[in-house]
Amino acid sequence: MRCPFLRAGGPSAGFCAGVWLFGDVRERGCRLFPAMQDYRQLRVHANAHALAVAVRAATRRFPRNGYASLKGQMTTAAESISFNIVEGCGADSQKEFARFLLIGIRSANELENQLKLAKDYGLLTTLDWESLTESTVDVRRMLYGLRTKVRETFSSGTASTQKRTTQKRSTQTAKSNSVDRPAL
Predict the structure, then answer these.
(1) Is there a contact between 100 and 88 (Cβ–Cβ < 8 Å)?
(2) CA 101, 103, 109, 110 torsion: positive or negative?
(3) Residue 163 within a domain
(4) What pLDDT was estimated at residue 55?
(5) Is the pTM of this model over 0.85?
(6) Alpha-carbon distance 70 to 155, whole Å?
(7) Which domain holds residue 121?
(8) What is the pLDDT of residues 132-152, one digit of tens each?
(9) What is d(CA 154, CA 157) in angstroms, rounded to the nearest whole number?
(10) pLDDT of residue 3
(11) What CA–CA distance (Å, rounded) separates 18 from 32?
């Protein structure tokens, strides 16, 4: 099964969510993310970029007078999704990458509401609104999925560290309880 986060048309060996993919087969002994990864290989980035371009094109059709604030906020939110994916790919850790993906998710939520306002104000046709909203929801779902995968990679390391720490503490407690105490 092909990874849903790897951009279609990319090289046969791509990097995705902490796993090297070769064609349709996962390599044994998956590696964790290096410090940086190539955002251009993520399908979610390509979709977020296309969404930003589509939102900018749609807002160009807004009336010249009025609605400048909404127009600016819509383009900023749409571009923010793409920007946060790119910035997250350059993050120092998976935890930080997950944080940038969460910011992208929040920007997608904001954009969805702004699209609804633009439709209600009569600035977007129903067809444009449906298309842009569907794209926004798709990008948000992809971000949720990628964030879940990223969090799994750093959560599994944290869980094993916590388990070792708990075992160490219980061993220390057992040793301290076995120390001879003077009888009272």
Answers:
(1) yes
(2) negative
(3) no
(4) 98
(5) no
(6) 39
(7) 34-156
(8) 999 999 999 999 999 999 999
(9) 5
(10) 52
(11) 5
Element holding 13 (H helix, E strand): strand 13-16
Question: In which residue ranges of the chain is pLDDT below 70?
Answer: 1-36, 157-184
Q: Tell me if 15 is assigned to some domain.
A: no
* Number of domains the chain contains: 1
Residue 117 belongs to a domain with what CATH number? Answer: 1.20.1440.60
Residues 6+ apart with CB under 8 A from 84: 100, 101, 103, 104, 107
Give helix then strand counts, H and E, for the chain. Answer: 4, 3
Nearest residue to 130 (alpha-carbon basis) of 54, 71, 21, 65: 54
80-84 contact pairs (CB < 8 A, 24+): 80/104, 80/107, 81/48, 81/51, 81/52, 81/107, 81/108, 81/111, 81/139, 81/143, 82/45, 82/48, 82/49, 82/51, 82/52
The SS3 call for residue 149 is: helix
User: Considering the domain boundaries, does residue 29 fall inside one?
Assistant: no
pLDDT of residue 38: 85
Tokens of 110: 């904001």
pLDDT given at position 153: 86
Q: Please state, in angstroms and rounded to a whole number, the distance separating the CA atoms of residues 146 and 152.
A: 10
**Tokens encoding 139:** 């990008």
Q: Do the domain assignments include residue 60?
A: yes
